[in-house]
Design goal:
6 helices, YgjP-like_metallopeptidase, metallopeptidase activity, 2 domains, 44% helix, three-stranded mixed beta sheet, 212 residues, four-stranded mixed beta sheet, flat, Zincin-like, protease, alpha/beta, 9 strands, UTP_pyrophosphatase-like
């Protein structure tokens, strides 16, 4: 039933969208046919949530698809220093509570993501022969990025800092491609394939992993 769409959300709940004329009985049949797949997805997401819950936010954080442990090294001149080779974040002292840990993580994610974009953007603007007038990062609930074609403005989701760096690059190229083709049509995906042939691998990583 191509007109019915199904999504298993991060909390395990199902989200079904369909045209008005589709009956409840048809939706039920659609779900029953995909019961095994639904169960597998719910179990996978539950396992990921359990792993995350077992990790205290005051002891470490997820960054670029890996877990970075916090390590206190007083005295320190900087608020924090990331050690990517050792997957650690050095701090003057560990966060005292969850609120302090969340503020610290948000700041690190924002700084790291902006630094990566500042590195990637000039390269891709040259390669694609496009130029943005403005870009920034912010918390986005349902999207990985957005592009205002008219104003040539790009926003990327702060959540990208949770995932491997190639995911950020893929979303950046995706939004830049909208400056060449506004719609998600055949030409758009042909351009994506020409600029970043392995973009679907990164897209799959975003779909198959989840973090809080």
């Amino acid at each position: 039933m191509q007109s019915v769409r199904l999504k298993v959300q991060q909390d395990g709940q199902l989200m079904v969208s369909c045209p008005y004329q589709v009956t409840d009985a048809q939706v039920t049949e659609f779900l029953n046919q995909r019961l095994n797949w639904i169960t597998q997805q719910q179990q996978r997401l539950a396992s990921i949530r359990q792993q995350i819950t077992a990790t205290s936010p005051t002891q470490g954080m997820h960054l670029w698809g890996q877990y970075y442990a916090f390590e206190a090294i007083p005295p320190a001149k900087r608020k924090y220093e990331t050690c990517h080779s050792g997957s650690k974040v050095y701090l003057p002292r560990l966060p005292e509570n969850l609120d302090a840990a969340n503020l610290l993580q948000q700041q690190i994610w924002r700084d790291e993501l902006k630094h990566l974009i500042q590195t990637l953007l000039p390269q891709w603007q040259t390669t694609m022969n496009v130029e943005v007038a403005f870009w920034n990062v912010k918390n986005m609930k349902t999207k990985w990025g957005s592009c205002n074609v008219t104003k040539r403005r790009i926003w990327l989701s702060l959540k990208l800092a949770h995932y491997p760096k190639e995911c950020t690059e893929m979303v950046l190229v995706h939004e830049l491609t909208h400056l060449l083709e506004a719609s998600h049509n055949k030409r758009f995906y042909q351009l994506m394939d020409s600029f970043l042939p392995n973009w679907r691998d990164a897209d799959l990583k975003l779909k198959n992993r989840t973090f809080p």
